[in-house]
Amino acid sequence: MTATRRQFVASASAALAGMTAKGERPLAGSFVNDAFAAGHRIRDRAPISPAPREVRIPMVIVGGGIAGLSAAWRLQKRGFRDFVLLEMNDQAGGNARSGENDVSRYPWAAHYVPVPGPQALYVRELFEELGVLRDGVWNERVLCFSPQERLFLYGKWQEGIEPAIGLSRKDREQFQRLEDLFAASRSSGGFSIPMELGLGRGPRDLDTLSFADWLRQHRIDSPLVLWYMNYCCRDDYGALAADTSAWAGVHYFGSRAPEEKGPLTWPEGNGWITRQLLQRVGSFVRTGQLVRRIQRQGARYLVLTDSVRYVTDAVIYAAPTFLAPYLIEGFGRLEKFEYSPWLTANLTVDRPPRGAGTLERAWDNVVAHSPTLGYVDATHQTLRSQVDRTVWTFYWALAEGSPAANRALLLQKDWRYWSEAILRDLERVHPDIRGCVSRIDIMRMGHAMARPVVGSIFDPRRRNLARRQGRLLFANSDVSGFSIFEEAQFRGVQAAETILHRL
Description:
Helix content is about 30%, strand content about 20%. It is α/β, with parallel strands linked by helices. The strands form 4 sheets. Strands 1, 2, 9, 10, 11, 12 and 18 form a 7-stranded mixed β-sheet that branches. Strands 8-7-14-15-16-13-17 form a 7-stranded mixed β-sheet, with helices on both faces. The protein has a two-stranded antiparallel ribbon with strand order 3-4. The chain is globular and about 65 Å long. It starts with a helix and ends with a helix.
């Protein structure tokens, strides 16, 4: 059974005291990319001083994640260059940011893109432009090398993340029953990526119950099967099955081909895509620009920052939608927009740990029944025959308990606490990990991913924002109800196309 949040916090606290007493190898590191102070200025509606400069421009994009960068990419491709993109952080990319040290580049959040199916036209168009897809053939260099994934279960590693060793007859029967159900959902055409393309055929009633309830309805009660379903929800949504809409749970499995190549990945994860987009649209991007207010002024909009007052004909709002009530004049409350707090860390690993079991090291490494999501190896795609030093990107979706309480915990506990919690988790499979790691840098994200709670996918307010009405358009992936690359790109490109038509 997965440890509760309280149990894990208690065990990590005890371990922290032990670490001090033992005098372990000194460990360097810090919190990085902390943006909560700026976010809290928006939340607290801090007073705005008159901006010293005014700029008149036809269009402003608010938010420099994949949605905003994709909107900029589309505008630039269409020959429209009279716009600016405003990004709060010092680095654009949102959940597709990356870092680099003397060992490797590495991701800070999103680390892959599943091979896009035929409906993901914009993704395929972008990858053709970037040389990832040519004449219908994917570049083998960016398809994830084997072994791709491994799971630590029953004291040893197995290849693949879906449990495959030590299964009882009940486990096998329930996995097969689920596969049959997901195959039927896949063939219905109601679950697609982008999700907007399948909504007219999808069963909306699934959004009225949780994924956990849906599993119970289909007599799924194997602890191992339920662990895997919860893992998948935590991985894509930062939530447990009990807190996930059944529609979103089925979409996870029913929207993609069962035997697809890939995924597509790079040492820096989706940060590679961000770098390519910035090479094309970086001249339009203004980082360190915290938008404080968006309001109507006659037929135009005012977009206010502390340093510039933008007067514009149209706005593509690509920032997280939960900020809209604090930024957009007269926007009103949002009921079904919830977000999952995450912690990611990059560990500099100076020598390979002994580990447990003998399976060859893999790209994605998951430990069954851990409260974390495991780690990916940044140097997995290298062509070098021997790799001693590497970087592991560690993922932890704080899914148990309320998001608000977990956001508070993220800020309350210091770097030392979270570093110890990470090492304790890794010691389950790498007993000598403390002697291998020299640095741990940690990024805290209080609202990392949209959480598709029950009733959120077909929430009337969300569906209204997706219709792209007027000249203030919403483009963040959370308009889809969940945060994946394809949805962010689709929303950004669609918003750009719509605004170009109206202007």
